[in-house]
Amino acid sequence: MVTWIALAALAQLISAGIVLVDKYVLVSHAHLGRPVVYAFYISVMSGFVLVLLPFGVISIPSLTVLALAMLASVTFILSVLFLYTALKRGNASDAIPVVGAVSAVVAAGLAYVFLDQDLPRAFIPAFLLLVVGTVLISHFKFTWNSLGLVVASGIFFGGSAILIKLIFLETSFIDGFFWSRMTNVIGALFLVAIPANRRAIFHGYHASSHGMKWLVVSNKTLGGVAAFLTLLAISIGSVTIVNAMAGLQFVFLLSFAYFGARWFPSVFKGEIHPHQFTHQAYGILCIVAGIAALFLV
């Protein structure tokens, strides 16, 4: 149990840094800073799993695995689109805890329905703690539109995690990992098939500097590492617990923002609110307590 929890925690640590870089690109560089462009790059870079083919470790998937992988990719791409649209409009420290809380609750509920996993005994108080923590952290700064975006992102993230777990129950980790990544590439091709998206994607690529391209590619490579660690944790552990641990990302995010604001004000501006620190501190405690209740009680 310690192993997959450690893997999930490391994945959230990496993801926190990735989100802040993403926020910087989304706000500061209009050419690459469109949610659909980011969703395309995240999806198409999943094709790195093709390096596994020469080793002959991949088998032909069953129709069930292929259908689950396609559905997981659709929900994942939608979650990314909603998340990055919300990040473009507001602060990561406001959006991420809401996405994490909603995702944790959705994953727990879907695991109960589709994986025959009993709901944690502390599900209701954990749910209430996550909601209260989210409200305290977000400080009522969301518009209804922005709130809808982050809630939708959390719902699709939670759904994607359950679908990935179902894939791993049907096949081996390597096969499940390969086909769940390759269907992301297919999803990227559907994105680029839409003329407006295609113009935005290619314009963003050609109009951006060489350094910015490398920043995005490097950041998405780290994203691939975080995704691999998360999927590995899901394959050997509880998808409900792994998904609930997304709340750790906010703790790491706020820590990075606090210590990095002095050196990188353009990146971290707006993430730290001194006059709201008390609310945020109580919000963190509520979220951590809610997540702990999901799998410790």
TrEMBL record:
The keyword Transmembrane helix applies. It comes from Candidatus Kaiserbacteria bacterium RIFCSPHIGHO2_02_FULL_55_20. Keywords: Membrane, Transmembrane, Transmembrane helix. The keyword Membrane applies. Coiled coil: none annotated. The chain crosses the membrane at residues 37-58, 65-84, 96-115, 122-140, 146-169, 176-194, 214-234, 279-296. This is EamA domain-containing protein.
